[in-house]
Amino acid sequence: MAVFGDDVTTDHISPAGAIPPGSDAARHLADCGVAPASLGNYAARRGNFEVMVRGTFTNRTLVNLLTPELPPGQTRMEAGGRAQSFTDAATQIAADSDGAAVISGARYGQGSSRDWGAKGPTLLGVRAILAQSFERIHRSNLIGMGILPILAAPEWAPGALTFAVGDVIQIDVPSDLSTKTILPILLYRADGTVLRSEGRLDCQTEREIAVLRMGGMIADLVEATTAATQARNKMDLQI
């Protein structure tokens, strides 16, 4: 879906500033009857996931290296294809694959521990982020939302390997994940070539591994709540 350089902050991922007129989020609010003068800012609308997902990766200073010619918040799904918002691209990705990947450089997720920095990508269908390094708190937030934080090989850094629109990444995720798991990764180039590499899953505790196996804390909570409800129902029937 996107390739970024070094030092991507949580404000880059999920901006807090004014919602720009004409943006994907602004169009959604307009469809809901919100006047242009009342768009407000993302910080004030963090309780509205429809707005926040549309604001993900739209910071005006963030450059998607896949499509540097496009304004922030847009990408292309194929070479020469039409420009799409990340939200529209996410819908297409969900229909065509198992999810989206984001490539980044060093110190991904630095800054405040903004939870929408992990929630937004999750709602866009991002299932893995391959970076040279992760900021500590954000790495934990990604795991909490079921996103794989993968430490990519140095030769896969955005400055060392040029990724192109149409490239597809295949990650072999074993069922027996551990804190030492090495993940085989294939990059299927749009030009037909295939590159092989390995990445290390950046998990540090067995609890983090358990959360990833569950698909994130929300999935874990849903399953726990469902189990408790079923237990209560069973008890009710017995009574």
Describe this entry's structure for a reader.
The C terminus is likely disordered. It is globular, with a radius of gyration of 19 Å. A seven-stranded mixed sheet has the order 1-4-5-6-9-8-7. Strands 2-3 form a two-stranded antiparallel sheet. The chain is built from eight helices and nine strands. It has one domain: Alpha-Beta Barrel (Aconitase, domain 4), CATH 3.20.19. With 239 residues, the protein is α/β, with parallel strands linked by helices.
Cα gyration radius (Å): 19 Å
- Total of domains: 1
Principal-axes shape call? globular
Helix content: 25-40%
- Tell me about the biggest sheet? 7 strands, mixed
CATH C-level class is Alpha Beta
Number of discrete helical segments: 8
Give me the CATH superfamily.
Aconitase, domain 4
Which features does this protein show?
239 residues, alpha/beta, Aconitase, domain 4, two-stranded antiparallel ribbon, 8 helices, 9 strands, disordered C terminus
